[in-house]
Each structure stands twice: as structure tokens, then as C-alpha cells.
Design goal:
Keywords (chain B): ATP-binding, Nucleotide-binding, Transport
Oligomer: heterodimer
Order of helices and strands of chain B: EEEHEHEHHHEHEHEEH
CATH class of the largest domain in chain B: Alpha Beta
Structural class of chain B: alpha/beta
Largest sheet of chain A: none
CATH topology of the largest domain in chain B: Rossmann fold
CATH superfamily of the largest domain in chain A: MetI-like
Number of domains of chain B: 2
Family (chain B): Belongs to the ABC transporter superfamily.
CATH superfamily of the largest domain in chain B: P-loop containing nucleotide triphosphate hydrolases
Number of strands of chain B: 9
Strand order of the largest sheet of chain B: 5-6-7-3-8-9
Helix content of chain A: over 70%
Number of helices of chain A: 11
Order of helices and strands of chain A: HHHHHHHHHHH
GO molecular function (chain B): ATP binding; ATP hydrolysis activity
Strand content of chain A: under 5%
Protein name (chain B): NitT/TauT family transport system ATP-binding protein
Pfam family, one (chain B): ABC_tran
Number of helices of chain B: 8
Structural class of chain A: mainly alpha
Distance between the termini of chain A: 17 Å
Largest sheet of chain B: 6 strands, mixed
Number of domains of chain A: 2
CATH architecture of the largest domain in chain A: Orthogonal Bundle
Chain lengths: 287, 261
């Protein structure tokens, strides 16, 4: 753990330097524009200062985004419509619900595929086909259709999350449930074990490392799904709504702060699964 | 003393695998009688059907002709009654279970009460000299110890028959000698009937009361040797003339099988 601190900090430092440099480069034309109109002459230092403090920059500088995040998380009440924590929670709740539904669906399909030959032949192609459809194309339809039958709010967004997150779980669990070799299955046979005993005592524990890897990918996909689900509907709350509103009004700082928030959210969610994975596998003697 | 009872009996056994390259005669016209308390080794080059024969006894393969009975019933019925313990080439312990947990596994499957499970685990760990390793995970044990644990697992539910498929094939010579010695002790203490597949002549001669020599294409029995060696066998019995004579006969049998090609 300690050893990874230095490399991680160096990478972060490097990215910050690149970011500041890019901000100067991208925001300079506007700074020059303003200067020509007011007849000022820009020195290097005033140019840099201007590019790092514009109100609607093409690329906001890191400290501007940081200040915005501070303002909208710490200084706003959580119940406020302008609190980023409130918006994050809206997205997070859809993400988690969709993740749970997607994981459940994924595991069920995987068990079906492993135990039923017909499902093995028929379901997998559909599962793969489902992921070739761009989610941006299908998300508005899901929301419109569900709205038409009176389902709105959390569930439609969670459905889109589920749509994205069940796939890695199916693929990983099918591989995991099939990971016991012929000898281990023969061994179960010599003990006259039932199908369900073979499942609970052999196939399921053997699939755990595969499941956790899938869950990590599924969780990240689930968050993307929830944000995409907020985009096409003119949703008023959620990180996706913040992104959309920001782009309507050219509030780049707001967009970037929502983006960073989403990234932090994804990182913590995946990190939590990583911790559960480590604890579980350690207790199982597999790590 | 009365005549010992027949435990495994094969009559005109045939097994043909249908493969893409045509039929493969894994076993052809195999006849064999294994008596209660026997230690029978099956030896032969690869492809002679020795493992297949063992798998037929365990109901893991279905013969295409002839009959086998185990304890007087069909292999399937014997499997249902959990009449045999099977030891595979690899230990195949579950990495997520401790040694104790692995040995408990068949007991859990067979519905043995919890209190009895612990007692049985202790007993078989003692038998394979692994007492005190119950809480260790498989990766903490050497290959030889893992294989001993897998033998303990096969013994845990007290089947009278032990089917062993090259259990020591992957181990080095020294560990193998030691395990062979232990296995003989174990056989003596428990009085089980053991069918043991190997491709090592000294191992077969050292362990067995009966040596079955097999040859390939089609897999068949070419010689059955009743060992004249005494039941009590220290490791250095392998240097005695009697031992070498039996080994010689086994070698002759293997060579005769090859000349048919």
C-alpha cells in the first residue's frame, strides 16, 4: 500500500500539470479576444491568470472545478437542489438498484445457461446481441415506454443500469460456474452428490473470483447506465441532469465538477467491491 | 477359514469408445475376480484401459458389453450405496476449504450428523498421519500431504472398497516410497479391498496381493499374478529374490503385450 503512494501521486501531479497547460492553450483565444476588444496588451502572466479564471472557459482549471465542488457539496445543504451530493444520491440510488437487479438477472441467466442445454444454445447469442445496441439509442425508448405504462422515477433509470450491468455478470458467472474440471465433477459423482449439492458446494464457491471481477465491471457500467438514463428525459435531478443542464448553458465548470463527482463515485463503488472481494476470498482461503 | 467373498467381479467386459477417428477398444473381454481384503494393482502402458476399468467399477464409464458387479450389485447401485472411495491422480482438494473441511465434504453430502463428522475427520487424519493439519488450507501443504488428505477424504465415509487411480503418479520417488509404506499400513489396519492403478512395476509388486498386467489395443488382461510375498513388507523386501522374481514376471507380461503390435 505504502509503496504505491509515490507512483500514484506522481501520476496525479503530472496530470494536473498537463491540465493547467491545456487550460492555458484552450482558453487563450478567448482571452486574446477580450484583450483586443478592450485594447489591452496581454503579458504572459496576465494571459495565464485570465485563462485560469474565466467564467465559462472551454476547459476550466482544476482549482476552479475544485472550488465548484467544494461550494456545491460542503457549503450547500444536502436537501438543496443545487447540492452535488443531492444529485449524486439521485444517481447513486438508481445505480445501486440497477446493479442489484443486473447482478441477480446475470446470475440467474448464468445458472440457466450452465444447467440447461437449450438455454446454453439460445440465450447467449441474445445476451451478446443486447450489448451491441448503443445504449444511447435504446435508453430514451425504455424511459418513454415505461412512462407510458405509468412507471417513472427511479425504476426506468435502474432498468438501463441493469441492462448494462447484467452482461459482465452473465459472462463471468458462466465461466466461473464452469470452472470446476472434469475430475472434480467425477468426484462429486462418486459421492452420489445431487445436482444442487454440486452447485452449492462446488460450482458456486469455485465461481467466486469470477463473480467479483464481473461485479466490478458491472458496477461501473451500472453508473454509466444511470447517468445515460438521466440524459434523454430532461430529468431535473441526478449527475446526468447536471451534465445536461451544464451543457445547455455552457457551464463548463458545472459539467466538469459533475464529471469528477461521477468518477469519484465510480471509484469508491468499485473500491468497496474490491474490499469485499479481498475479505471474502481471504476468508475462503482463496487469496 | 472360509473362502473369501468376491467383492468385484467382471465378466466378458467390453468397452468401446466412439471417437471421430473410429471406435477405440478400451476394454475387450476382461474377466476378473477381486476378493474381500485383496490389494489388486493394475499395471500396463498408457492406453491399456486400466483407468477405464477402474472407472467402470466406479460407474464413471458405462461398459458396452459384459457385466460388472461391485458387492454383488451393479456399479450404479454400489455408487448409490456409497460403497467405494475413489482417489484420483490429482488430490483435487477444494482451495476454499481447509483440510478438515475437505474431508468433511463427502460427509456433508451424505448427510452424516455434525457431531459424527468431527470424530470421523479426526480418525482419518490420524490414519494418514495428518493429525493437527485440520485447520490448514491445501496450499499450505506439500504435494504428498495433499494426496494423503485426499486419501483421508476417500476413507472418511468408511466404504469397504478403495479405488485408486495412480494416486502417487505425480510425486517424487522418495515421497512415493514413504506413501507406499503408509498405504500398506493403512490397508492392514482397515482391511479394505483396494484396486490400485499404476505404471510403476516396483510399486505394483511392493503393494499388491494380486497384480493384473494389461496391454493396449484392445485393452485386455494378459496376466494375473498372485503375489507370493508375505503380508508384512518392509521397504527392503524389494531387494529379495522373491520380489525380483515377481517383478521379472510382470515385466515379461508387459513385454508380451507389446509384441502383439
Amino acid at each position: 500500500m505504502r509503496r504505491s503512494v509515490v507512483p500514484v501521486l506522481s501520476v496525479v501531479g503530472f496530470l494536473l500539470v498537463m491540465w493547467y497547460a491545456a487550460a492555458v492553450w484552450l482558453n487563450a483565444p478567448w482571452a486574446y479576444d477580450k484583450a483586443t476588444r478592450s485594447g489591452e496588451v496581454l503579458t504572459t502572466s496576465t494571459l495565464v491568470a485570465d485563462t485560469w479564471s474565466q467564467e465559462k472557459p472551454k476547459l476550466p482549471a482544476p482549482h476552479q472545478v475544485g472550488k465548484e465542488i467544494w461550494k456545491t457539496t460542503v457549503e450547500k445543504k444536502i436537501t438543496s437542489k443545487r447540492s452535488l451530493i443531492y444529485h449524486s444520491w439521485v444517481t447513486l440510488s438508481a445505480t445501486l438498484l440497477g446493479f442489484v437487479m443486473g447482478t441477480g438477472l446475470g446470475i440467474l441467466l448464468a445458472v440457466g445457461i450452465v444447467y440447461n442445454r437449450t438455454m446454453d444454445m439460445s440465450v447467449m447469442p441474445w445476451v451478446i446481441a443486447s450489448q451491441t445496441i448503443p445504449i444511447l439509442a435504446i435508453a430514451p425508448m425504455i424511459i418513454v415506454v415505461l412512462n407510458a405504462v405509468g412507471i417513472s422515477g427511479l425504476l426506468p433509470k435502474a432498468m438501463i443500469s441493469m441492462y448494462l450491468s447484467f452482461f459482465p455478470v452473465v459472462v463471468g458467472m458462466v465461466k466461473g460456474l464452469r470452472s470446476p474440471d472434469q475430475m472434480q465433477l467425477d468426484q462429486m459423482r462418486t459421492w452420489f452428490a445431487s445436482k444442487s449439492q454440486t452447485f452449492w458446494k462446488l460450482r458456486l464457491p469455485a465461481s467466486m473470483p469470477y463473480l467479483f471481477t464481473s461485479l466490478k465491471i458491472g458496477m461501473a457500467a451500472s453508473l454509466v447506465g444511470a447517468i445515460v438514463g438521466e440524459l434523454p428525459t430532461g430529468a431535473v435531478a441526478g449527475l446526468g441532469a447536471r451534465l445536461l443542464a451544464g451543457s445547455y448553458y455552457g457551464q463548463t465548470i458545472q459539467i466538469w465538477s459533475a464529471l469528477l463527482m461521477a468518477a469519484a463515485l465510480a471509484a469508491s463503488l468499485v473500491g468497496i467491491i474490491g474490499i469485499i472481494q479481498r475479505v471474502t476470498l481471504k476468508r475462503m482461503g482463496m487469496a | 477359514m472360509t473362502e473369501k467373498q468376491s467383492v468385484i467381479s467382471a465378466r466378458n467386459l467390453d468397452l468401446t469408445f466412439q471417437t471421430n477417428d473410429g471406435p477405440v477398444h478400451a476394454l475387450k473381454d476382461v474377466n476378473l475376480e477381486i476378493k474381500d481384503g485383496d490389494f489388486v494393482s493394475f499395471i500396463g502402458p498408457s492406453g491399456c484401459g486400466k483407468t477405464t476399468f477402474l472407472r467402470v467399477m466406479a460407474d464413471l464409464e458405462q461398459p458396452t458389453g459384459g457385466t460388472v458387479t461391485v458387492n454383488g450389485v451393479s456399479p450404479e447401485e454400489a455408487r448409490r450405496q456409497r460403497a467405494y472411495g475413489y482417489v484420483f491422480q490429482a488430490a483435487g482438494l477444494y482451495p476454499w476449504r481447509t483440510i478438515g473441511g475437505n474431508i468433511r465434504l463427502p460427509l456433508e453430502i451424505m448427510g452424516v450428523p455434525k457431531s459424527e463428522q468431527a470424530e470421523r475427520v479426526n480418525r482419518v487424519l490420524e490414519l494418514v498421519e495428518l493429525a493437527g493439519f485440520e485447520k490448514k488450507f491445501p496450499w499450505q501443504l506439500s504435494g504428498g500431504m495433499q494426496q494423503r488428505a485426499s486419501i483421508a477424504r476417500a476413507l472418511s465415509f468408511d466404504a469397504d472398497i478403495l479405488l485408486m487411480d495412480e494416486p502417487f503418479g505425480a510425486l517424487d520417488e522418495i515421497v512415493r516410497d514413504h506413501l507406499n509404506e503408509q498405504l500398506l499400513h493403512l490397508w492392514e489396519r482397515t482391511g479394505k479391498t483396494i484396486a490400485f492403478v499404476t505404471h510403476s512395476i516396483p510399486e505394483a509388486v511392493y503393494l499388491s496381493t494380486k497384480i493384473v498386467v494389461m496391454s493396449p489395443r484392445p485393452g485386455r488382461i494378459t496376466d494375473v499374478i498372485d503375489s507370493p510375498l508375505p503380508k508384512d513388507r518392509p521397504l527392503d523386501i524389494r531387494d529379495t529374490p522373491e520380489f525380483l522374481e515377481v517383478a521379472h514376471r510382470v515385466r515379461e507380461g508387459l513385454r508380451a503385450g507389446h509384441q502383439d503390435d
